[in-house]
Amino acid sequence: MKVAVVGATGLVGSKMLQVLEERNFPVSELIPVASERSVGTMVNYKGKDYPVVSADTAIAMKPAVALFSAGGSVSLELAPKFAAAGCRVIDNSSAWRMHPEYKLIVPEVNGHVLTANDYIIANPNCSTIQMVMVLQPLHKKYSIKRVVVSTYQSVSGTGQKAVKELMDERAGGAGSGVYPHRIDLNVIPHIDVFQENGYTKEEMKMALETCKIMGDDEIKVSATTVRVPVIGGHSESVNIEFRNDFYESDVKELLSNTSGVIVVDNPSMNGYPMPLDAEGKDEVFVGRIRRDYSQPNTLNCWIVADNLRKGAATNAVQIAKYLHAQGWI
Predict the structure, then answer these.
(1) Count of domains in the chain?
(2) Catalytic residue list contains 190
(3) What is the model's pLDDT at position 176?
(4) Is 234 a catalytic residue?
(5) Residues 137 and 201 in one domain
């Protein structure tokens, strides 16, 4: 089982290597791929050093599966080339997510839609992944009509340079311009590029990707995405309007029995999900579960996950494990 990791030296790429090892994915040969300036450097995996190679070299080595985390432009150029060589591509960028020919997958939610003919598979946006993990079981039981979400997204979602910028500012230095404003001791209601409709690209991703993953274009999603001075872990305040009424106790029981979801909801003891508690974990945490008394059939909750793990690397590896379990790689 030859496994390529494209973008192996980046934050998410490094996390992919870690998750592959933790989950005992059957890697017989690792093929780390990065930009030309990184070719020849070494990447350690399970105690062995592997040289970083170019994309062309990797394709010639015929990997069975390639995990991509190198940006949309790289994915648009290279994913079809890997796929044409018979390699399954699981892409973490936004390049293929809304393409009608390619599946957008969270294994616990819609892994069943994958087939042996899928050679390019999209990994959803990190904020979307953690939200749909909670929405899907609720939608099945109560039928979701509308979702209003505000996110609190950590700087690691932007990459290594953003983490460095936060720490430099915290130490009293100047930022390097990763963000349009200072991020330390600040909150920036701006993630990705603003669109003509006044929403950012990140906000529209959450709206469009949710419908595609859950297979229901009738779900309305309104998002406001915000960058906060937290190193890792994304949080979301989510308001969900259902077509059918619910009991809070039933909602908590349903989510407690959902694979990959952990309910942390004990406000009297200050028990609720926080990014620090989610760090290094693959589960999605949900709490502050309560009825919205301003309108019927509506629920409020708070969702937290490690954006580099379930929000990116872990979800990609889970897709690869699903393909392997089906005998397709």
Answers:
(1) 2
(2) no
(3) 87
(4) yes
(5) yes
